[in-house]
Task: structure prediction
Amino acid sequence: MLTSKTAAFKHSMAKKDNRPSDRILIPPTAAASLPSLRASFKGNQVQSKYLMRKYLSYAASGVLSPFRALERLQFDGKVADLKMDKAPLFVLGHWRSGTTFLHNLLCQDPQMAYVTTYQGTFAELSLHPLNRALFKTTMQAVMPKRRAGDNVILNADLPQEEEFALGNMGLGSFYDYWYFPTNIQTYYKRFVNFSSVDGEEQEARWMAVYDRLVRKAILNTGGQRFISKNPPNTGRVKTILKLYPNARFIHIYRNPVMVFLSTRNFYKSMLPYLCFEDIADERLEAHIFSIYEQMMQQYETDKLLIPSENLVELRFEHLQKAPLDHIQTAYEQLRIDGFENARPKFEAFVAQKKSYKKNTYKVAKYDIDRVLTHWNFAMERYGYSVPDHIEVV
Result:
């Protein structure tokens, strides 16, 4: 997810144990417009130990302002006039459900347009040649080679999710919770299911900013069909259909036990490099349980709005075993051409990923019991039991 990749924008390399230092890491807020930055901090208290991170964010945002203006001046017309001839494709799924692997695999198809890691942070500096020369080159030089928390390879040109970019282009996003994690429930209501007091206004603003981002991604990559991987969109199906009525969707799901363990590990690995306040482990875990339930229940309700021929649901464990077979089936069901043309690239990507090392877990029985209590609805709905390959202690 974007959290780790954009968070990798830093001034120096790791300490001797190869872990990046949170004291020198500049969060994605550094690339936000000043209005967006002010919106993210409004009403929130920055803890004293993170004040330098806040000051660096404002300083960087101010320095970047004229470059954002330059890009808007030269490219706003081209963005608005762009014709989207092919229905966009949305990869849905809760964090840590295999969305990154599926997205990266699909993006091997040359026809796909997507938000890159660079654009995911510097959304308003992604098209002008001068901006790319200055900031993309710098980002690539200083970012680590792999993502903290799950060992995924990082590169400024690799596919990325959109949520940080939306925040940097607009007036806040759901990923503001990475900065102020105690407010995650508020951000979910405000920026995912648009159920806050100003929900209709927020939804309209989100659609406008999102469509602008999609068009910029198409111009940036040169693809013809935009493909999204943005986990919060799993709870936004109704809104996405308002914007793109003929959109295609692939929902990937995974054993909830593994989702919880992986999500908790990832959050605890990345929060120190992004946040402006600390959160107790117990409170963080309560949020993980709550957000999953809200998002997956919302998806199960809203997926009925999607024409059946425009939705594929995919089990992560099945994709792992036979990725090309399942991708080919998805292309056929969703009426997306070009599979055979992209097959060699798909095959090369799959072969490369065979050496990828996943995290392993020793799991407390207490954690297993909590998953079975809070997410039993998903265990039953998706046909899962406790994995037999994890060690329960």
Notes: The two ends are 29 Å apart (CA to CA).
